[in-house]
Amino acid sequence: MKILAVSDLHNDAAQVRKLAERAEKDGVKVVVICGDITFFDDYEDGMIGPFLKKGMQVLMVPGNHDSEATIDFMLKKYSMRNIHGDSALLDSVGIFGAGWATNVGPVMISEKEMRNCLRKGFEDVKEQKVKIMVTHVHPKGGAVEREYGYPGSSSVTKMIYELKPDLHLHGHIHEAEGNEDLLGNTISLAVGKHGKIIEIE
């Protein structure tokens, strides 16, 4: 299975079209968006449709620019799935997540809610062979925080060590795109608007 992981698109519809073309050529079936589809909650058309037109399943969590109202509007408009506090089962792969951020606006949640959402989503995937955790915000104490100076979420870090996903995908810090960290046995990968195609065996 090939997954396109992307984040922080911020209304760049031209980039979405490029990503959809690339993903189709590479045989991607699932797109995971790690938040910030909009820019300060100002939504533009063309941010999801190009993926769906290529027959790809779209999973997402909201970012700190994406309000609940706007995400609800997008969910009604498009056939995609919000995995904030939820999960998706794809063959032997389980993907669960929590969106928004715990320490910076305009849209935030508490650390407690972040933990509860991740635990809730994990329940349905815990028996899967491969488990992928998706958040918008990066983990506290990880490489992104150390290298770029932006505080991460203590709950994301706690849940990585508690739930032990095989892979953690996040966005949020644009300049950290491509940064890869190892927390316990979990690979934590920062993705951005250029996307990362991940092959799951």
Q: Give the SSE string.
A: EHEHEHEEEHEHHEEEE
Number of discrete helical segments: 6
Strand order of the largest sheet: 5-6-7-8-10-9
Mean pLDDT over the full residue set: 97
Can you tell me the CATH topology? Answer: Purple Acid Phosphatase, chain A, domain 2
Shape: globular
Distance between the termini: 7 Å
CATH superfamily: Metallo-dependent phosphatases
Short précis:
By secondary structure, this protein is an alpha/beta fold.
Please give a structural write-up.
The protein is of the alpha/beta class. It has a single domain, classed as Purple Acid Phosphatase, chain A, domain 2, CATH 3.60.21. 28% of the residues lie in helices and 24% in strands. The protein has a six-stranded mixed beta sheet. A five-stranded mixed beta sheet has the order 4-3-2-1-11, with no helix packed on it. Strand 5 and strand 6 form a beta hairpin. Helix 4 runs parallel beside helix 6. The longest helix is centred in the N-terminal third of the chain and has 13 residues. It is globular. The mean pLDDT is 97.
Q: How are the elements arranged and paired?
A:
Layout: E1 2-6, H1 13-25, E2 30-33, H2 49-53, E3 57-60, H3 68-77, E4 81-82, E5 87-90, E6 93-98, H4 111-123, E7 130-135, H5 143-148, H6 154-163, E8 167-170, E9 180-183, E10 186-190, E11 196-199
Parallel strand pairs: 1-2, 2-3, 3-4, 6-7, 7-8, 8-10
Antiparallel strand pairs: 1-11, 5-6, 9-10
Helix pairs in contact: 4-6
